[in-house]
């Protein structure tokens, strides 16, 4: 599950509030928590949810003409007012937890509300783990509020405990951005890559290949796992390495023939199925996958080369068909970049082995033979 980051601006006013609201509109934040009066003049932005914190005396007039996704009670005593204001929106509650009684009161809201913003006075994560245990199997998403800016460095540890996300005080925009970076890293997945022994490399004539242009900039050791069968594929490098006759395209992977699979840790996509905005995974030589989006897929007729390889440990055979050109690179098993046309049988490349059998890109439990 991808963790969410919420920015809390409820303590801000004046220029500080204006600066924070402007910042969250462009930051890697999923939602902003505000008081009703702070949304005066707010213009909705599709990707950013708005949660409004209300008290026991709040009325419908407080939320008139305000684009609100979540109504959050500022405590259990305010839930009645928040529920009456929700009217089809998600319902939440913010709970201050400083002893056993307040812990039990918060836990009792699991299954009652959609969002539980837990504010702990103690640094330990044990109360958080107890809340998560109570929320398991219910509709309630538990968030942890970071106690201070200094706690930003512990975001990763908090997220490993399993909350739906964190609530960060937007008093410090630097802390907000640091938390966003940590949340983004937590969304990355890893899958073991393996050395594959090349068994064949030969031209096969003309065919259509697709370049996958993404909305990210790849690092020197990154690319995509591309293969002809669901058994796996080879790490094809992004266009971030020296090209003598053209500029680099650091957003691009020259990904191979149009029939090819593009692998993520749990799913695959045909190159021809990819469209602008579709999710796709980049991977580095250490097997760290990160999500990005397709900007476009550029399909053109080019000479093609078949590259075949074997995983000696499992005996699995994989192949990839790529544009037959020196400037297309694949990754050696030691993390070195190899020019496609210079790869010879017996050499080792880096790739991924998956359990075969896919239906619309998802693993299925049936026998499927691919050659």
From TrEMBL:
Domain named 3-dehydroquinate synthase N-terminal: residues: 27-173
GO annotation, biological process: amino acid biosynthetic process; aromatic amino acid family biosynthetic process
Entry annotated with the keyword Manganese: no
Domain 3-dehydroquinate synthase C-terminal span(s) in chain numbering: 196-371
Example of a GO MF term: 3-dehydroquinate synthase activity
UniProt KW keywords: Amino-acid biosynthesis, Aromatic amino acid biosynthesis
PANTHER family, A to Z: 3-DEHYDROQUINATE SYNTHASE (PTHR33563:SF1), PTHR33563
Protein known as: 3-dehydroquinate synthase II
Protein source organism: Quadrisphaera granulorum
Phylogenetic placement of the source organism: Bacteria, Bacillati, Actinomycetota, Actinomycetes, Kineosporiales
């Amino acid at each position: 599950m991808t963790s969410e980051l919420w920015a809390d601006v409820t303590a801000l006013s004046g220029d500080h509030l204006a600066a924070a609201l402007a910042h969250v509109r462009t930051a890697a934040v999923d939602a902003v928590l505000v008081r009703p009066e702070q949304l005066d003049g707010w213009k909705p932005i599709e990707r950013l949810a708005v949660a409004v914190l209300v008290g026991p005396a709040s009325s419908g007039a407080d939320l008139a003409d305000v684009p609100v996704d979540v109504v959050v009670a500022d405590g259990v005593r305010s839930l009645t007012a928040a529920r009456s204001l929700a009217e089809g929106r998600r319902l939440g509650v913010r709970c201050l937890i400083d002893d056993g009684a307040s812990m039990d009161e918060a836990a009792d809201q699991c299954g009652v509300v959609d969002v539980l913003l837990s504010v702990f006075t103690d640094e330990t994560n044990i109360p958080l783990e107890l809340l998560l245990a109570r929320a398991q199997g219910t509709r309630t998403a538990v968030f942890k509020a970071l106690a201070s800016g200094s706690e930003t460095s512990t975001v990763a540890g908090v997220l490993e405990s399993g909350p739906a996300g964190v609530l960060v005080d937007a008093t410090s925009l630097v802390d907000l951005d640091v938390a966003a970076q940590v949340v983004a890293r937590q969304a990355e997945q890893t899958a073991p890559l393996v050395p594959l022994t090349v068994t064949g490399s030969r031209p096969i004539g003309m065919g259509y290949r697709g370049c996958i242009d993404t909305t990210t900039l790849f690092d020197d050791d990154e690319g995509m796992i591309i293969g002809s069968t669901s058994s796996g594929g080879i790490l094809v490098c992004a266009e971030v390495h020296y090209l003598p006759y053209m500029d680099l395209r650091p957003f691009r992977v020259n990904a191979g023939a149009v029939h090819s699979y593009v692998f993520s840790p749990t799913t695959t996509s045909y190159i021809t199925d990819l469209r602008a905005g579709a999710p796709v995974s980049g991977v580095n030589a250490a097997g760290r996958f990160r999500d990005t989006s397709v900007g476009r897929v550029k399909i053109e007729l080019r000479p093609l080369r078949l590259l075949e390889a074997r995983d000696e440990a499992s005996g699995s055979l994989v192949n990839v068909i790529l544009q037959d050109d020196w400037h297309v690179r694949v990754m050696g098993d030691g993390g070195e970049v190899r020019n496609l046309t210079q790869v010879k049988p017996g050499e080792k490349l880096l790739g991924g082995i998956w359990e075969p059998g896919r239906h619309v890109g998802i693993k299925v439990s049936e026998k499927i033979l691919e050659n």
